[in-house]
Amino acid sequence: MLLTVMILKSLAELSLMFLAGRFILGLLAGERRQSNVFWQLLDVAAKPVLWLTRRVSPGLILDRHIPLAAAGWLCVAWVLLVAVKIDLCLQLGLAACR
Question: Containing domain of residue 19, as a range?
Answer without folding.
Answer: 2-97
